[in-house]
Amino acid sequence: MPAIVLIGAQWGDEGKGKVTDLLGERVDYVVRYSGGNNAGHTVITPDGQKYALHLMPSGALSPDAMIVIGNGVVVDPKVLLAEIDGLAERGVDVSRLRISGDAHLIMPHHRALDRVIERYLGSSRIGTTGRGIGPAYGDKVARIGIRLQDLLDPGILRKKLELALREKNQILFKVYNRKAIDLEATVEEYLEYAERLKPYIAETRAMLWDALDRGETVLLEGAQATMLDMDHGTYPFVTSSNPTAGGACVGAGIPPTAINKVIAVSKAYTTRVGAGPFPTELFDASGEHLRKIGAEYGTTTGRERRCGWFDAVVARYACRLNGVTDLVITKLDVLTGLPKVPICVGYEINGVRVDDMPMSQTDFHHAKPVYEELDGWWEDITKARTAEDLPENARRYIARVEELCNTKISVVGVGPGRDENVVLHPLLP
After folding, report:
1. Is 170 assigned a ligand-binding role in the annotation?
2. Active-site residue 289, yes or no?
3. Is-catalytic flag, 140?
4. Which fold has domain 3-90+203-423?
5. Which residues hold substrate (predicted)?
6. Is 244 annotated as a binding residue?
7. Can you tell me the distance from the alpha carbon of 138 to that of 229, in angstroms, rounded to the nearest whole number?
């Protein structure tokens, strides 16, 4: 079977990990194709165990799927090894992991620069996690990055790091008055990582090509989400890679003709972490309700997520941009108990109604949501497993979202657990 892409339709944290885990037992490979440990997936297994994954693909919790970190990911080896050890201690088989030798490494100077630059930006800061993701991607584009395969050649590693530190240490010390990075200590540290990571490093492109040739199912898992895409998101308040469906081909090394399904995940409302425009953001009791009931705190950072009503303009944009075939709506249960549930159906910009994403950043910053209110419901929906189990008003809400997005809704999440879903249309045959 050809490849499936799984992406987020908002600003991240939509519940992609839950969907990956839901599909994991029915796919042969789960591939992470973008981002770094600035992302986080929370997965709750049927026995109630909670796993927070950052670099490992969410398929790690599926017993049989091969798990792959593709060339489009930037890897902090210390973080990855800690995650591998943590999973192994809990009985998860990590021997199935393979990492592309072309994936770039996050180095100490990346983390140092990320933190100090964000601090110096002050009120203009982007809201990065400070984990070195952006600077690592910057060096990749500047062609001075260090890749995972370089760990296997101490001479190359030292030469590349020495070249990079000539510039980076000047910036850290002379511009920001920070301590320079020690070359020898860093080489020694990363060669220790090399010993442990060596068994996992592989030519993952050929591995995936062969799997597709055999008719096996490959699930391509994006980190972050559409509105954080470097090219198509709310620039500059975005991540440093392309988490959209198009980025899956680049970040995993597979041809676009191999993809036959794109699954997008969206919450039944909207959240965002970090700075940037957010038209439906709430600053009242409704926003606090969504944050509290939805436990809206970042998996990676612990920061409070900004909360707002469902934005159909954003969701429709994501569906069209990614060529979405199946939409998954999560956390419908969080809306239970609200007398009215608004949906943003358009924007007003300078007195003019628009129904599509504005072209310019300025217009999007000034966009005022145009709401359509639907009646809420009070019934507990966490035990619902079919559409008929849902209250009538909940079904109307889902139907209206589907109509506004012009995309088939296949699954509705009614609780955090892997089995707490209403399946309207099977994601896999």
Report:
1. no
2. no
3. yes
4. Adenylosuccinate Synthetase; Chain A, domain 3 (3.90.170)
5. 299-305
6. no
7. 15
